[in-house]
What we know:
Two copies of one chain form a homodimer.
Chain A: H1 5-12, H2 16-23, H3 31-44, H4 50-57, E1 62-67, H5 73-88, E2 92-97, H6 104-113, E3 117-121, H7 128-136, E4 140-144, E5 153-157, H8 160-172, E6 177-181, H9 188-203, E7 209-213, H10 220-232, E8 238-241, H11 244-256, E9 266-268, H12 274-279, E10 283-285, H13 288-304, E11 312-315, E12 318-320
Parallel strand pairs in A: 1-2, 1-3, 3-4, 4-5, 5-11, 6-7, 6-8, 8-9
Antiparallel strand pairs in A: 10-12
Helix pairs in contact in A: 1-2, 1-3, 5-13, 8-9, 10-11
Chain A binds a DNA duplex (16 and 16 nucleotides) through residues 4-6, 14-21, 23-24, 27-30, 33, 48-58.
Amino acid sequence: MRATIRDVARQAGVSIATVSRVMRDSETVRPETRDRVLAAAGDLEFVPSHLGRQLAERRHAANGIVFPDLSGPYYAEVVLGYEAVAAELGRSVLILSTRGRDDADDAVRAMAERCDGLVVVSGRTVDDDVVARLAARGTSLVLVARPPVDTVDSVNAENDASARALTRHLLDLGARRLVFVGDPSTSPDVAERLHGVQEALTEADVAADVEIRHVQNLDEQCGAEVVGDYLGRALPDAFVCANDELALGMLGRLRAAGVDLPSRVRVTGWDDVMAARYAGLTTVRQPMRELGATAARLLDELISGTRTHPRHELLPTQLVVRTSTTLGKETP
Amino acid sequence: MRATIRDVARQAGVSIATVSRVMRDSETVRPETRDRVLAAAGDLEFVPSHLGRQLAERRHAANGIVFPDLSGPYYAEVVLGYEAVAAELGRSVLILSTRGRDDADDAVRAMAERCDGLVVVSGRTVDDDVVARLAARGTSLVLVARPPVDTVDSVNAENDASARALTRHLLDLGARRLVFVGDPSTSPDVAERLHGVQEALTEADVAADVEIRHVQNLDEQCGAEVVGDYLGRALPDAFVCANDELALGMLGRLRAAGVDLPSRVRVTGWDDVMAARYAGLTTVRQPMRELGATAARLLDELISGTRTHPRHELLPTQLVVRTSTTLGKETP
DNA sequence: TTGAAAGCGATACCAT
DNA sequence: ATGGTATCGCTTTCAA
């Protein structure tokens, strides 16, 4: 079995307290003693047990992150940014995907027990009351891509301004009949995007309207299905999708059906995932990695007690125009 | 502060041992006593500390996974498959990305201290001797996309057969001068793919050759740079890339340069990431999620002691033909 | 500078 | 069925 602090102490002929001091090079230990301890530790291949250490220090040195899924590019990037910063701050990262899990709430609570704090990404992961209970218990918490709760830190990407810019772009191209694809009730992000679109239409000096097309999931398959529905009847001027995956699914199906883009119909997405570039999809770029990184920093402030008042960060987004809306002015 | 087992015991008027029994509903406790304990626990919002529990049980109920990066689609999918199965088996998942980290070896060792076992993905994460030391210390270990070590479990995707199929496909199309893009020394997967290509050429009944073009990273930028080099001189018949990202970078640059595909030059990738579909990239599909899932299952067998002899899994891959090599027969 | 001993929060064995 | 207590591996006073 592994060597413990006692084994080292015995071999070095000192007390466990001294070994502990040496291992954390914290206190003043006589160099000679120190060497003896280090020699013994090296000899026994001693590695301090995190468990014992954490129990004594009453902290985990670990952060959690909860997200719905890792299959799309979006959450993977968020997690990546989070892990990078957390690691920099000397904290381990626990992940929890709620996809296809019926006991998500319990799993999150269990996770909170092994972390000093955690980040919850997206509203489709855990119920609000679970978040509220965690917050009430004093768990350090940061919400990402979730509607801000006054007392809880949050990080979100800007939706409204970019949705308006996107809509104006479509209006400028002559589009009048828009269809928004995606259920605004599934996520506040989607709701905000739709809201931005509607506002832009209201403010426009031309008559235009937007119809809402609800879908089950924000994935390629649903996008393709929506196209299937519309191929029978008249196509709108533009499909404004809640995310890139939906839009990509639509593009594939439209091309397969021989529909000419962007002359016949225009399609836009949201996120700017890698595939969007290759598909020539006009979309809105989100700083996904930065969302995660910012959340990690906020969480660290909470855990370390550097800050007590809640903060709400809003990161900028950017319209990216490609050939799915216009052949004219392309943005790389 | 949080309630401990002692607080509950005091409030319920029982010993901590009884509370412990109730919390794990393990032993037989008189219903009446049980109710009293549960009432006290609920009242105090008692949640057993993982730390204490793990220390006593001398296990973590957590698995780790080490990978180079999460930005590409490949590792994200592997991690996803891993997390799903690990969660099913009641284990938490710790992640560690070695990208841009100089103390990767230490980080891995530290991670091993808080896990019952871990998975190491790709050879570009940690040194072989670190893996060997971990194995020697008795840490349960599974290697993914790494050259198998006799005594350590491993999960890999088939490279050789698909590389040969890919090469034959190119030869059938009339390609004779091939360029393999990617450094075989960076990963055994890449080396195996190159090996498969070379073998197929040797076995072919036509004269053909492959040149090796080394690159810094397997990403889009490097792919684009390679194209830049070749635009000056003569293009080969086909670029066989070590992964999709390289190939996608090449496609973008080639199209920008107005080079006609696939008539002028053919390009192939490896992985079949989402963007490959939209770019019409001929590639080899890997069961990425299944790699992670299989690793999680193997690891669980090791940790639970169900199995002691090492196993080496080889998962099948599949050639996917698209328009980057031929306009004729497309595979969806 | 070093050691002894009291936690930290649970589990599990041995009594009763 | 329940309680007492040693134990897990470490940190952290308090003394010496």
